[in-house]
Amino acid sequence: MNPSRPVFAVVGHPNRGKSSIVSTLTRQDAVKISAISGTTTRSQSFHLNLMGETRYELVDTPGFQRPRQVLSWLGDRACNAAERIESVRQFVAEFESAEPPRFHDEVELLKPIIGGAGIIYVVDGSLPYSPEYEAEMTILQWTGQPRMALINPIGGEAYVSQWQSALSQYFGVVRVFDPMTADERKQRAVLSAFAELHEPWRDSIEHTLARMDQYREQLAWQGAHLVAERLVAILSSTHERRMPAKAVEPLMQEQLKREYQQRLRELETRAQRELQALFAHTRLQTDVDVLEADYPDLFDQDAWYLFGLDRQKIIVLSASAGAAAGAVLDAGVGGASFMTGAIAGGVTSGLASIAATLKPEKLRFRGVPLAGKSLVAGPVKDLRFAFVVLGRLVGFLELVSQRTHADRSRAKLEQQDMNKRLELLGRMEQVRLTRLIQKAHKGLNDKELEQLVELIQTIVGFPTKPAS
Hints:
The chain has helices at about 20-25, 65-75, 85-95, 105-115, 135-140, 160-165, 185-195, 200-235, 250-280, 310-330, 340-360, 385-400, 420, 425-440, 445-460, and strands spanning about 5-10, 45-50, 55-60, 120-125, 145-150, 175, 240-245, 365-370, 370-375. It is α/β, with parallel strands linked by helices. The protein has two domains: about 5-195, P-loop containing nucleotide triphosphate hydrolases (Rossmann fold), CATH 3.40.50.300; about 215-460, no CATH class.
């Protein structure tokens, strides 16, 4: 065991949420979590890896099974406090290879502790305190290792105050910690408390906290960048089919429309999977994965209000973006146009947005009849549809970035419309976002893409300064 790298053994009664705490604090959904008592039968190590470095290790352990018998055995061999740590070592040595196996679970959970691991003792705050827990808490006390207690309110906080009174007599730090909802601030508080408990780990833990800040900024930028790239990919996508000489055009148009829509759905699904992988939610099940889930289809226009902007907002933003583009033209001719470019640009763009909302899809022909024709779908220039795509991608980014890895319930995508999200931007930022989205169907250059990334970060509430 590396003495400079913190290692924590997560211990306690069976079925108290130990594995959930390991999953949240290591940000891994590979940790097995089950409501069935005794799922963890052997100690297993999991690491928190940040930016290519292992920062600390958590050991998921089986629960205590016969703590009173173990304490009795230890008491027979330790006449005073100076002999207690050695008695724990003797216990592990004697029963580690005993046949038939005895005290298997206690040996598994004590091995990492006598090897130098700190102790995170987990209890359920929804259950009343009982003196039966004192045997196992006393055993942990006899190990001499730094220790804290976490009260996991699995079914509520009815008995938290009881637990706090009892635990404070055995542990240097007592915290209420729900691994299903604990945000980064609460996770950091657990680490900070251990820095106070065990001085040799202080520098390593403080370095880890700094790394966590950098990693959070890096993930925020990468997530927003991925959304920006996939938004442009969806809005600029086209699909083309050659027209046979005797083709029935209405049938070909309908077939192409279905194929094109399916292509855009697949691009959106791929973006969601990439966001899951980025935030290490590889086993996350969402509404999208379940056929009967009430999650609207990308092309269900009746549900667009859930993710996009209302028609009036679209027209206002489109006109403003057009006016802004016209103002750039006016500046280029030294103002000689007396702002006619801005006015014309605003009116034209506003009218175009009205037309787009009335006819969101468009198919066109390419080629000439004699040489044969191709029917082309896309790119979608409908600004309303573009904001729907952005709203859905941003909503998914928010979901995976805020969800803890211990929460294994099916994730429901919250339907927050873009009208509310845009309130996080200033007026000029809203216009700039609209202008970038208007240009997205032709693709964006690197500078424009980075501007879009920054705006997406603001919408989601991420820090806008990318990590170095």
